[in-house]
Amino acid sequence: MPEFLQRKLFGIVVGVVLLASVIILWLQFRSVPVNFNRSPIIGMGQVAAEITAQTLQDKGRVLVIVPGIPGSSEKLLPPNGLWNGFEDEIKKHSGISIVATEFADIDRGGFPAVSATSLQAILEHHRDADAVVVFNGLPLWEEMRDFIQQKAPFPKIIVVDIDMAPLKRRYAEYFSSGFLQQLVSLRVERSSGSTASPKTPREWFDSQYRVYGPADVAALVTE
User: What is the number of domains present in the chain?
Assistant: First the structure.
């Protein structure tokens, strides 16, 4: 087969695989079972809003970044869950305003994190934001390192990642660089709190998730 046809075929295969990955992710996040317990992720959204307000001392302009399907306005977030918990809680802080919600392409790494190219373009365009809340995780550190070093300083960065297990080491690098201020994600250790059955979204959050800061780098690099 001629080389140009091989390249064309390879490009088609890669495109089909990427499109299939996007569709699968979209179906996973949109097809939430009726009996799905949304309380933990509602609590996660509430806590993300709380720490955003605390970080800004209840006053400032917030940019929200969510992963989206290319060419679509769909948010890759469960309905009545994470996004709603964040939105409902942030409204309680009158000094905080969401100035924009941007849709970023999905990371090619196979996780529903935002891609480096999209994240960089969005951050460049919204330099006037006081804080940026990124849903579903950050790209590989290596893909952002040069940009961060060259373009600093940035608004305060807060990341919400439902399942960071395969990605926790990358967050240690982001914290160490000063780029990342807060991370809301799964616990990497068991909760030391009450063993009683959680009832409220906040209790569910405390049982499964936690907030990480720069002082928690050691926990993030521990296997």
Answer: 1
Is 91 a member of any domain? yes
The CATH number of the domain where 59 resides is what?
Answer: 3.40.50.2300
What value, to the nearest 5°, has the Cα angle with vertex 27 and ends 21 and 32?
145
Single pTM value for the model:
0.76
C-alpha 120/C-alpha 99 separation (Å) is 18
Going by C-alpha positions, the residue among 78, 76, 91, 69 that lies closest to residue 44 is 78
- Cβ atoms 51, 45 nearer than 8 A: no
Does residue 169 lie within any of the structural domains? yes
Segment-wise mean pLDDT, segments of 10 residues, the chain, 223 residues: 55 52 48 61 90 94 81 51 86 93 71 80 92 88 92 92 69 91 80 68 85 85 61
Owning domain of residue 172 = 32-220
Domain assignment of residue 16, yes or no:
no
